[in-house]
Amino acid sequence: MNLNRGLGSVITRRIPMVIDTLDDACLIATKHANGRDWWVVVSEDTKSAYYIFLVDPSGVKLHLHQNFGIPKSRGEAGQSFFSNDGQYFCTATNDGLLNRYHIFFMKFNRCEGKFDSFQFLRLNYQINDWDAGCAFSSNGKYLYYTKLDTLYQFSLNGNNLAIGKISGIYDGFKELTSGGFTTPTQFGPMQFAPDGKIYGQVSFPTRSLHVIHNPNGDFENCNFKQHDIYSPTIRSCLPNFPNYRLGPIDGSVCDSLGIDNIPWCHWRYHQDSLDFLNFQFTDLSAYEVEEWHWNFGDPASAENGSTQQHPVHRFSKPGIYEVCLIVKNKNGADTLCRTVRIAVVNNENTTEDAIQIQNWPNPFSHSFVLNVIGYNPQDMHLELVDLMGQVVHRQKLQQGSHWIHTKHLPPGTYSLQVFERNERVFGKQVLKF
Questions:
Q1: pLDDT tens for residues 88-145?
Q2: Distances 249 to 32, 36, 255, 358 between C-alpha atoms, Å
């Protein structure tokens, strides 16, 4: 790290660790039980067999090879995933030649670097299926599994998976990518994100991302939204991130480095689309939190605090509130306070310059993105007005990012206007080509 003027330099590269035919779609890692080192797992290409590597300050070394003796698909059509706590592991596979959709599920010992309690399930196969993906909910209670056209949720019952229940069926949507081509936004690999949601897409070039907004809910309440986020770029894969916010297993035989699970506080909120004063708060804290203490900064409300992990609070009136969460465990505590603005941005009436709104790109073709930043509206909507003064598109808005579909509109110049409580708060001329 002292080389290259303190930026660091690669001093060795391409060191062979194992020579075999490996599955390049099923590489994943989880933190060692000591809270410092890492276990890196890669699957063989056509076998339910895994190489487990240990990464520690001395380097990278092969720790163990485990073979469970069941044929598996070739690479590039599946995914491996650890649960957030590193306790469970899954590989999702599909092979059109073998007509198999398999789930390989097992427990992982973060101290010994070893799998046990191996279980596999076979799902129905359709001839047009290809991709497979998997991800765990943050609380470790559910495993999500995708075929090309179906999202399943499996409950974890001890070391076993319960019967899968369907949380979503592909809705047939196709999006315009480039050159006049359309791509079906089917299902494939998934990724758990730091905001507590699970994102996914098919392994074809697409712009859209599917979102499981509440992965800790059951199959009917996980709030799965297809093609929910629009990206300005075209992608054909998702990044493969481990859980970096995983500490040691306190009290285990591997807890020998003096690293403690000191809480790290983080949270997000979601405004109810039907009741603008009602908010769902979601805890995103890490490192084995045991207590949650919320203060909503709203003393006029009936309940200004909560000890629930994911509380709901209805604010007493529009205003600017400082909401704080304190998280605790036996090793310490952490606090995060954030400002929540509801229907006002200051102590005066809102003005056109007070609400921060972004739109891009401009000019645009079949769609554009509009962002409402740091403001929770009471009754906000946008209007696109043509040169004849006719409103040709109207859409309700909340805080955050919105994908505005304009495929139905002819090319031309439009006036983009945003209204809050029927008062114009944003105006701009935009061009569709």
A1: 999 998 766 666 678 999 999 999 999 999 998 888 766 565 788 999 999 999 999 9
A2: 9, 11, 6, 44
* 76 DSSP assignment: S
Task: Look up residue 347 and give its amino acid.
Answer: N
Burial letters for 162-195: b for 16+ Cβ neighbours within 10 Å, e otherwise? eebeebbebeeeebeeeeeeebbbbbbbbbbeee
Residue 384 to residue 395: CA distance in whole angstroms: 9
CA-wise closest residue to 189 among 51, 39, 48, 81: 81
CB 140 within 8 A of CB 83: yes
Q: Is 185 left (phi over 0), alpha (psi -120 to 50) or beta?
A: beta
**Edge-to-edge strands of the sheet including 267-271?**
267-271, 278-283, 312-314
Q: For residue 216, what are its two tokens?
A: 């800790």
Supply angle C-alpha 183, 189, 193, rounded to 5.
115
Q: Sign (positive/negative) of CA torsion 313, 317, 318, 324?
A: negative
**Candidate ranges 79-83, 179-183, 345-349; pick with highest mean pLDDT:** 79-83
How many whole angstroms separate alpha carbon 359 and alpha carbon 357?
Answer: 7
Look up residue 168 and give its amino acid: G
DSSP state of 286: B
Neighbours of 371 (CB within 10 A): 15
User: Is 89 in a helix, a strand, or coil?
Assistant: strand
**pLDDT tens for residues 408-419?**
999 999 999 999
C-alpha torsion angle, residues 171, 177, 179, 182 (rounded to 10): -10
At residue 141's C-alpha, the angle toward residues 138 and 143, to 5°, is 80
Task: Determine contact, residues 148/203, Cβ cutoff 8 Å.
Answer: no
For residue 347, pLDDT over 60 is answered with no
DSSP state of 250: T
Which tens digits make up the pLDDT trace of 37-90? 999 999 998 889 999 999 999 999 999 999 999 888 766 678 999 999 999 999
As a whole number of angstroms, the distance between CA 40 and CA 392 comes to 54
